[in-house]
Design goal:
Length: 68
């Protein structure tokens, strides 16, 4: 586990190994979530990046009949 330090400007540097593993790039945006006493940054990814991430999800369904 890597430890980082909050700067005087409230900035945190993401360690190089993590940036490379996650293919993070300069200027990338993050959403920040608070979970109790934890802070979790999550990169904002386009919806197309999620394609295929849930291979076991059954996408076959039938719509209800039109009830008009």
């Amino acid at each position: 586990m890597t430890t980082v330090t909050l700067s005087a400007k409230y900035q945190v540097v993401i360690p190089q190994a993590v940036r490379e593993e996650m293919s993070l790039t300069p200027g990338e945006q993050f959403r920040v979530f608070r979970h109790g006493d934890r802070v979790e940054p999550a990169p904002v990814r386009p919806m197309t990046a999620l394609r295929g991430s849930l291979p076991a999800l059954d996408t076959d369904f039938s719509r209800d009949e039109d009830r008009s």
